[in-house]
Amino acid sequence: MATALVLCHDQSLHRIRISGRFLTVSSTGPFKELNKITCCSMYTDPSTLKIALLIGNNQGDIHSLDLEDLKLSDFLTFKGELANRISLSNEKPILQGLDSCRTEPNRLLLSYEKTLVVYDVSVREVLANWTLESEPMAAHWSLDGKFVTVASSDGSFLTFAPKGESLETPGIIFGPFPCQPVNKALSTTTHLGTLHAFSGGMPRASYGDRYTVTTIRTGRTECWDFASPVKDFCFAGSHTGQSSPLFLLVLTEEELVVLSVGGKEWRPIPLRCLFPLHASAVTTMTHVADIEEEVWDRLHKHSPHKRATIANWPLSYAQQMAQRTSEHKEQLLLTGHANGNVNLWTAGEASMQLLYCIETATEVAGCSERKESFTRKSLESDSEESECHLTDEWPPFRKVGDYDPCSDDVRLSVQRLAFDPKTGTIAVGCRGGHAFVYQFCENPQTCDAASVLDCSLLKDTSGIAPAIRSLRGIEPRNHSLNFTAGYQPRPVDESSGSLLVQLSPCVPITAIAIYDERSLLAVGTEFGFALIDYQKTRIIHQQSFLDHTDLADAGALDDALNRFKSMKKSIRQSFRRKKKATSNDTTLNNEHEDELCRPVERRIEARGALTQGLIIEPSKGLVRLIKFVPNIALGHAQGDTVWIGTHGGRLYGFSLSANGECKLEREIRLQHAAPVRSIEVVTDPNNKNSPASRLLLITEEQVRGYTLPQLKPTKYKVKLTANEGYRINKGSLVTLRQTKGDPSSDVFLALITNMGGILVYSLHNHRKNAKFTLTKATDVAGINSSILSQYGEIFWLRAGASLLQRASLCAPEAPPPVPVE
């Protein structure tokens, strides 16, 4: 059983206990006798092994809160036991700090302004007290209890023996110029000497904006530089039984960072839990189900986070005892980030863990050189202890942590992801109009410079906006790069060089799909799509769906000037309508005073102009959907197909012949011209091996059914926007199991709406089976980030995009019990 105590701003205390999969919360307080809480510390009675929370207040007293019954009792009163034994300059004895010694819990370290007191609880006596020249920021026992470390406001820290004798200290480390206060300082003894760690203390004028924790040992200094403010830090030993502090745990505002500082090598270690999802802003998410067992085993075998042994991890945390018995294959959640990283997370179980991180920025010129230089310096600093402090830079900063809110180039941002569950190959589409293909390799390799495959979607670019025409693609790296076992750029033919696909115009990728069995990659943008054979480095087919009227408006989403002009035009039109309405108010009111209004279904019609008030609509030819559907009948052809859906409500079905040709077989033009969200191929539910019989076309406003192979309309039709006013954000088929009794499953159509709800429809008819609410209608970011899994699980980002919320349409099995060590 694990217990956590939470102190809130209103001085109420909450006890949270975790036992298996059960979590209980008990609350108490606020207590009048506490007045104002100033400090807290956990205390273990050596005789009874009873654990309590010691609470200090602004009257100098200490109270004890029992963890079992949450009852408050007096522990130490200032007037009764301390007032006559110590002298304070201030009449109000405010207790500013409280710390219990680890080796001797009965010894308490108390901080009263400039006075430090060592108090023994067992004999109720003051062992020592001494006065400092300036008021300390914090004071703590060393882990071995042999001395006390005091953080000062002048940028230094001091060490004292338990009796108050001053010990040798390095003084102001980064002086002589004025430095920031040292907020907290800790010390301990290792087999290599005394190790100190403190936060702050940087030169105020030069590095006052840095968030650092500095570690010092004889002859060595390291300033760990973080991207967000440091909240707290502590030493921790290995939970396998080693007593010496081997690790430094640093909690920042955005992440937890674990540093190994006990030996000769000082280095960050990979996290095994508490991963920062928002290390870089999440730009896209994709869920993949039914991953082949061989692919899954290779991912786990070579995962850097899985390879870290438990002995090298300072925290003991929940271990899953048993897997759920399920017919489902393994599942992955892929997240793309603004800095070009792609993270692979385990999904389908209660615990999600980071398996792998792909850094696509290393394929770009400049980014790969910086990373290689940073890695080389890190290795050099760890290789020889005596040379670690010899550096041209002072203070010796070392960047650590995954959190990085800034991106070097917006073109690196990942826009779309595709994963082949049979082989594990990944396709990545980025904001700069370029795409990469990564494959999993179990051996380290050296990849040569990437070759660029330019693909121009427009023959004549004179008709597009100058701002779009001036966009340039990224420059690939021009040197070889070493890759460890894991995901590597897929080599071209028999060479060791990778492939970079660059579409022109260089606008963001809006859709991507991969079919690794035939080495096919399909990439779409606002100007069209291209089908590429990345094994032979050949463009099989490319096509633009824009006409001459759409070219001038294409790219308006990325054109700030167009947005500004649209806003001015909208405001101007609003004033004109207001003036016109004022002059006709009397006439209109008289004419329609007795008119009866009745609800009617909105007439299905094509959408209007691109500019709707302050909202700028993308061009009709923007590619919203690309999907490979293997081995189905389409028209007069039987085989592999690729489907393209546009923002203007058009669906194109292309057949892929055995010799590599791509031919348009069928085209659907919807009257309401709503954006295509997805397509689903439906087979006979009684015979899954039977050929596909229906195609479901899901747009922003409707769901339509078509027969295969001729694509003739069926009676299956859901007019969601016309009848209920919702718009469809995401839609897919989900397999839901029975919650009670019969273990069989059935397939349904699930739709996520723009109002934060989810609707479930039957495939046999267009009857609505269920309706749920996921999030608030005002949570636009959460709704837009939501995705559906094949087995009815929903993922979406919470406010702030640092938390991932999960929900399930059907959870027949309870999660397995999770023990806590």
Question: How do the strands and helices of this protein lay out in sequence?
Answer:
Elements: E1 2-7, E2 13-19, E3 22-28, E4 37-44, E5 51-57, E6 62-66, E7 72-76, H1 78-82, E8 97-100, E9 107-112, E10 115-120, E11 125-131, E12 138-141, E13 148-151, E14 157-160, E15 182-190, E16 193-200, H2 204-207, E17 211-217, E18 220-226, E19 230-236, E20 247-252, E21 256-260, E22 267-268, E23 282-291, H3 293-301, H4 304-307, E24 330-337, E25 341-347, E26 354-359, H5 367-383, E27 397-399, E28 414-419, E29 426-430, E30 434-441, E31 445-456, H6 466-469, E32 481-483, E33 486-489, E34 497-504, E35 511-515, E36 520-525, E37 528-533, E38 538-543, H7 548-551, H8 560-583, H9 585-591, E39 611-612, E40 615-616, E41 623-634, E42 637-646, E43 650-656, E44 662-669, E45 676-682, E46 694-699, E47 702-707, E48 713-719, H10 720-724, E49 728-737, E50 745-753, E51 757-762, E52 768-773, H11 780-785, E53 787-788, E54 793-797, E55 804-808
Parallel strand pairs: 18-27, 31-34
Antiparallel strand pairs: 1-2, 2-3, 4-5, 5-6, 6-7, 8-9, 9-10, 10-11, 12-13, 13-14, 15-16, 16-17, 17-18, 19-20, 20-21, 21-22, 23-24, 24-25, 25-26, 28-29, 29-30, 30-33, 30-34, 31-32, 35-36, 36-37, 37-38, 39-40, 41-42, 42-43, 43-44, 45-46, 46-47, 47-48, 49-50, 50-51, 51-52, 53-54, 54-55
